[in-house]
Amino acid sequence: MKISNRVHLTASGWLGCSMSHPNDCNVYAVRCGPNYIVIDTGVGIGSEDILRELNNDTIQPSQIEAILLTHGHLDHAGGAHCFREILRAPIFASQLTADALRTGNEEAISLADAKRAGIYPPEVKLKPCSVDRVISHGETFQVGDSRITGLQTPGHSSDMMSFQVKTPEETLLFCGDTVFHGGTILLQDAWDCDLRAYTASLRSLGEIAIDGLYPGHGLWSVRDGSRHIEKSLSFIHRMLIPPSLISGVS
C-alpha cells in the first residue's frame, strides 16, 4: 500500500492498520531511485503474505537492495530469515542486533520475557539469521538516489537504530520504536530498556530536520515529522516522561 511518494506500507499489526499479523510492526518499502530498501520484517508469522504485498505494489524482489533492521525485537526482526531467503537481499543491522540474530538469542531480544508475559506463545522461536552488514552510528551508504545514515537511538532497547533517508526531495526518518505519532514513546519492563538513554536519543533526533516520520507502529507523518519529536521533547525539557504509545490500551 503506497502511503507517500516514496514509501509503501507492506505490514502493520494491531498497533497500526491491522493489515497483517497482530504482532507485526510497520514494515516499509522505500523507493530509492529504481530500487528499494525494506525497513524491518515483522514477527515472522505470515511473512509470505507480507512479501506478496510487495508484488501487489509492483515491487519485484530483484529491486530490493537491502533489508534494514531497526532492532532485534521479534515484532521487527522475526521475519528476517524469511525475507533474506526469498528476497535474496542483504540484511543490515547494528552490531547488537546482528549478534542476537546470528545466534538466535531470545534472551538478548527479550523474547523469553515476552513469552513468560504471554505476549507470544511458548512455541514461537527466533530463527537465526545472518547479518550481511553491521551499521555503526553515523555510517552512511548510498542506495540509488538516496543517502542513508544509521543513527543509534537506544532507549526502548539497547540495540535500537533509526535510519535517516535523504532523497533529492526530502528527509525521511524510520525510527523503529524510538518515537511515535504524537510524541509518544514505548517504555517496557525489559532488561535493556533505559529511560536516560531514551531521552538522550530523543534529544539527538531533535537536532535533525525531518520531513517524513515513519515509526515502527501506529500512524506516520508524510510532512513535518519533526513536530512529533518536538512534542516528546516538550515533556523531557520539563523533566517529565512523554506519554506511552499504548497508554490505556487493554
Describe, in plain words, how this protein is organized in 3D:
With 250 residues, the protein is of the alpha/beta class. It has a single domain, classed as Ribonuclease Z/Hydroxyacylglutathione hydrolase-like (Metallo-beta-lactamase, Chain A, 4-Layer Sandwich), CATH 3.60.15.10. It contains seven helices and eleven strands. The protein has helices spanning 47-56, 74-77, 80-87, 95-103, 111-116, 195-205, 226-236; strands at residues 7-11, 27-32, 35-39, 64-68, 91-93, 133-134, 140-143, 146-152, 161-166, 171-174, 212-214. The protein has a six-stranded mixed β-sheet with strand order 1-2-3-4-5-6. Strands 7-8-9-10-11 form a five-stranded mixed β-sheet, with no helix packed on it. A hairpin with a 4-residue loop joins strand 9 and strand 10 (171-174). Helix 6 (195-205) crosses helix 7 (226-236). The longest helix is centred in the last third of the chain and has 11 residues, at 195-205.
Summary of the model, kept short:
By secondary structure, this protein is an alpha/beta fold. The chain has seven helices and eleven strands. It has a six-stranded mixed β-sheet with strand order 1-2-3-4-5-6. It has a five-stranded mixed β-sheet with strand order 7-8-9-10-11, with no helix packed on it.
What are the main properties of this structure?
250 residues; Metallo-beta-lactamase, Chain A; six-stranded mixed beta sheet; five-stranded mixed beta sheet; 7 helices; 11 strands
